[in-house]
Write a structure and sequence with these properties.
The protein is α/β, with parallel strands linked by helices. The protein is 34% helix and 14% strand.
Length: 369
């Protein structure tokens, strides 16, 4: 059952957050949505942490006429994996994004103008520190679990390592403790696409740099899929709209990338895209530590990891590295390798493959509280 009609809320913290870069950001606004009811002892709160270009709108609709539900609607609601009759579910838009939280599109209080490229470089750790402010605002000392995939999984890892006393568990899907040179390279090419669009104007544009951002998003979509899923979805089919020997004729996979790329321009800001790509590339769970063992030593909460066989952006070996170190340290950890042909996006598209395991995990965590 759906959660029904929902609304995005926001809160502004008149405070300054010291970032990993050493710079100061404040005040800070966070956009967020909640579903379900917080129980009397405030022990049923679940935080969903979203990925790169996601937002706080996880579930439900904004109106009866709304044609689109939240991006993970299938797992949130009465009787669903995150049952809102049992859990109080929270999702906040990360800082650096463009869906209501403080980011490069926000007004810099010191200048009265948009931050644009004067916005400081942020990290995943900075995002989680901002989320901790939201928990304080909501009066929640400890989360039952924090659950996220991709960049959301990185946030869950940061909760487990930097705020171990504030979570009872974590569910980490399709993520990496540190993106590989290949992942960084793909983001670099996406950056070049935006930088080389003359309408980007070094971040001082009035309208989104359409061609550059569309190309950047198209590059991203390639990394989200897999060879097998591309064969299944497109094969080598040539567009029926184009002539086979038309110089500008396109294969169906080309049309797909173009369609999704240009649709993206209407819903996401180019500078936010760049800042969040930088945060992805900089991410290292062992940042500031001598080793991965030192970084994971503070973990106390059970963590359930998921990797997907066809994910070549953050392949299973990267998850397994984290799992193996946690096991060496004697930490409570579970690992599930899910057979899938959907690539990196499997965590969004095939929730039914991991939902039973998460359900059992949360039941076990809840029984101990």
């Amino acid at each position: 059952m759906s959660v029904g009609i929902v609304e995005t809320q926001s809160v502004t913290f008149d405070t300054e957050l010291r970032l990993e870069s050493g710079r100061i950001l404040g005040p800070i606004t966070l956009a967020y949505e909640t579903y379900g009811t917080l129980n009397g002892n405030r022990s049923n709160a679940v935080m969903i942490t979203h990925a790169w270009t996601g937002n706080a709108h996880v579930a439900g609709k904004y109106s009866e006429d709304d044609q689109k539900v939240g991006w993970w609607d299938a797992i949130v609601g009465p009787g669903r994996l995150l049952d809102t009759d049992k859990y109080f579910v929270i999702c906040s838009n990360i800082i650096g994004s463009c869906y209501g939280s403080t980011g490069p599109t926000s007004i810099n209080p010191k200048t009265g103008k948009r931050y644009n490229l004067s916005f400081p470089v942020i990290t995943v750790r900075d995002m989680v520190r901002a989320q901790a402010l939201l928990l304080d605002h909501l009066g929640i000392d400890k989360l039952l679990t924090v659950l996220g995939g991709s960049m959301g999984g990185m946030q869950a890892l940061e909760w487990a390592t930097c705020f171990p006393e504030r979570i009872a568990s974590a569910v980490v899907l399709a993520t990496s403790g540190r993106p590989s040179p290949m992942a960084i390279a793909m983001n670099a090419v996406a950056r070049w696409a935006i930088f080389n669009d003359p309408t980007w104007k070094k971040g001082e544009y009035r309208k989104n740099p359409k061609d550059g951002l569309a190309l950047a998003r198209g590059i991203g979509h390639i990394t989200f899929l897999s060879d097998e899923s591309m064969w299944s979805k497109f094969g080598r089919r040539f567009s029926a709209r184009d002539g086979l020997f038309d110089f500008f004729g396109r294969f169906e996979v080309e049309r797909y990338l173009s369609y999704n790329g240009y649709n993206f321009v209407d819903r996401f800001d180019a500078n936010s895209f760049l800042y969040l790509a930088k945060a992805l590339d900089l991410y290292d769970v062992a940042w500031g530590c001598e080793s991965l063992q030192e970084a994971l030593a503070p973990v106390t909460a059970p963590i359930q990891f998921y990797a997907f066989t066809s994910d070549w952006l953050y392949p299973p070996a990267q998850t397994e590295e984290l799992v193996n170190v946690l096991k060496e340290l004697g930490k409570p950890v579970e690992y599930h390798l899910i057979e899938s042909s959907y690539g990196h996006d499997a965590f969004l598209l095939e929730h039914e493959t991991f939902a039973p395991y998460v359900l059992d995990f949360l039941d076990r965590i809840t029984s101990k509280i």
